[in-house]
Amino acid sequence: MDEVPDPAEPGPYEAVVESLWSGICGTDVKEFTGHGGSVSRAPHPLTGAGLPLVLGHEFSARVVAVGANVEGVAVGEEVAIMPLQHCGQCLACHQGQHTHCVVKAWTGLSSPWGGFGERALVQSYQLTPLEGISAVAGAVIEPAAVALHAALRAGIGPGDTVFVAGAGAIGALTVMVAKALGASAVHVFEINPERAALVQSLGAAIVPESARDDIAAYLRERTGGHGVHVAMDCAGKPSAHEACVASVRVGGTVGVPAVHPGPTTVDVRRITRDDLTLVGSVGYSRESWEKTVLMVRAGVLPIERIVTSRIGLDEIVDKGFQALAKPGDELKILVQVNQ
């Protein structure tokens, strides 16, 4: 914990916000424990930021100042912050593929400001009015958008059977998204009993520990011998990825929103011989972000259900980062930065 100066006055297309609720992401925890890689010491080419900087990229906020050319949002309004920043000049940006921007940055990881500070300076295009969404749910929109984008890229649709490996925050949100998209069954393997119980309450069928050595066979028994339509690797472990590839039916799809720390062995023969599709996913498109907001506002995605603890800013180290850095039952911890 440290004291930093307040942000400067916003530029023409910028805004200053007061953080309300901010979620601790696994990426933040990796930086806290020293095993990260998402935050650079060198200045970022888009923002100029490097260590030290303020963490926190999943947050809701209240607008306290806007630049002269900012439209569509007013001082005092509560918003969700879309942390992806882009240059607007590269080919990907011209095509609207901001996630593919060659110098993209993320508020809370590669920007001077983040959601764990009382105030932050952001670009006006990062502001999404909550308009009926609670500030608590507003802090969970970012990971929910990650899950929705991954599910849409994997093509989850009505009637599909789905396997989700890992019930961390993204895994739990993927269960919720898959059900909202019309999946007929969502099977989840999760070794933590508390997390398994939570996703079961969201409508998932839990793959028992006894099936751990052959999850694919277990799922084939429950899908008429075929395997699932879509498998989602939300664990980021080689064994989880292998189980996903083995569990899908001929012509099925494996989606990978998880961040793997190193190379993973892929059964290429199975992918080619059984006509599988392997789809990676990072972040979200603007369309996926906006659809997430609409689904939350409509009550289709009750994303606040994955929040397991709410703590104060003065508790962020011991009851936040340290709690998540060791094996435990916590899933998503939100920090109340400002009242």
UniProtKB/TrEMBL annotation:
A single GO molecular function term of this UniProt record: metal ion binding
Keyword flag Magnesium: no
Domain of life of the native organism: Bacteria
Transmembrane segments annotated in the record for this chain: none
InterPro entries: ADH-like_C, ADH-like_N, Cyt_c-like_dom, GroES-like_sf, NAD(P)-bd_dom_sf, Zn_alcohol_dh
Gene3D superfamilies assigned: Medium-chain alcohol dehydrogenases, catalytic domain, NAD(P)-binding Rossmann-like Domain
The keyword Hydrolase appears for this protein: no
PROSITE patterns: CYTC
Keywords: Heme, Iron, Metal-binding, Oxidoreductase
Pfam family, one: ADH_N
Domain Cytochrome c: 71-223
Cofactor(s) listed: Zn(2+)
Name this protein carries in UniProt: Alcohol dehydrogenase catalytic domain-containing protein
Organism whose genome encodes this protein: Nonomuraea cypriaca
